[in-house]
Amino acid sequence: MSYAIIETGGKQLKVQPGRFYDIELLHVDPETSHTIDKVLLVSHDNEVTVGQPFVEGATVEGTILRHFRGRKVIVYKMRPKKKTRKKRGHRQEITRFMVNAINFNGQVIGATENGTTTPTTANVEVATTEGSDSEE
Questions:
Q1: CB 18 within 8 A of CB 112
Q2: Cα dist. 42→14, 35, 67, 78, 102 in Å?
Q3: Per residue in 95-126, pLDDT tens?
Q4: What is the three-class DSSP state of 133?
Q5: Is the pTM of this model over 0.85?
Q6: Phi then psi for 28, rounded to 5 degrees?
Q7: What is the rounded radius of gyration, in angstroms, for the C-alpha atoms of the chain?
Q8: What Å distances lie between residue 94 and 14, 24, 51, 67, CA to CA?
Q9: Between vectors from CA 41 to CA 92 and to CA 109, what angle results, nearest 5°?
Q10: Which H, E and C letters describe 61-83, residue by residue?
Q11: Other C-beta atoms lying within 10 Å of the C-beta of residue 14
Q12: What's residue 63's pLDDT?
């Protein structure tokens, strides 16, 4: 199992190829590829490479799936005995990022098997049973 720890949006995140992650807003158009070069750690076949602070020559390639807003967080401030109340809401802008491959020193150490980022659906035949119409 190959994985990497990246830094994006001021947070550190463990990523694996073939999975999507919700990260801070990246100002990139949806359905385009994006490369993250702030890789802190790379693990492949029980070999761990730790950067100081970043791993040289390591990148994480992925696709921006969509942008959306997170759940609303309510901030309520009240001063007792002063009749002062403030109610504010905040919704964080989020980007859904699909990890396609982890590159280390020019070679791909982790990638999706089929190379596609959109899930495929299987064709399923629906069997219908014909019943007799009985009138009562």
A1: yes
A2: 10, 15, 27, 47, 8
A3: 999 999 999 988 898 787 655 444 433 344 44
A4: coil
A5: no
A6: -130, 145
A7: 23
A8: 17, 5, 27, 6
A9: 105
A10: EEEEEEEEEEEEEEEEEEECCCC
A11: 13
A12: 96
